[in-house]
Design goal:
- Helix content is about 45%, strand content about 20%.
- A hairpin with a 5-residue loop joins strand 4 and strand 5.
- The strands form two sheets. A three-stranded antiparallel β-sheet has the order 1-2-3, with no helix packed on it. A three-stranded mixed β-sheet has the order 5-4-6.
- Helix 1 crosses helix 4.
- The chain starts with 11 loop residues before the first strand and ends in a 13-residue tail after the last helix.
- By secondary structure, the protein is an alpha+beta fold.
Length: about 160
Amino acid sequence: MHCPFCRHTDSRVIDSRTADDGGAIRRRRQCPSCGRRFTTVETASLTVVKRSGASEPFDRTKILVGVRKACQGRPVTDDQLALLAQRVEETIRSQGNAEIEAHEVGMAILTPLRELDEVAYLRFASVYQAFESLEDFEAAITILRAERAADGVEPSPIGRASS
């Protein structure tokens, strides 16, 4: 770590603390050359590999943008979306990989989104699971109904024509 004041190539750690609910480490450092103190924040980097092969740093706001589109017109708050994005990031980081495929990020969104809003889940799943026909939607709806029945939840009118 270079000293930001004199550019000396070494520094001594004086104090370390966790920050951002354990997602980062805040270190207080002192330069042995000039004696000045400075703070660094260390986080584990996570890279997303896109379909094109290009890599970019993980960005939680991209999750929010994609999920917000799926939730358009649904009774979902910004706070709920922020919690969903945080949960997805925690899930991805808990896998311990420095790189993750973009498709895996999309798949990691599906479970918490299904719990948040089933209609938004179907919208999002239609993209990430590459639905190609009405049968794909019907199969997804059948699975949702079966899970609701197994959980003892009343059937909903998802996928039924209203009279």
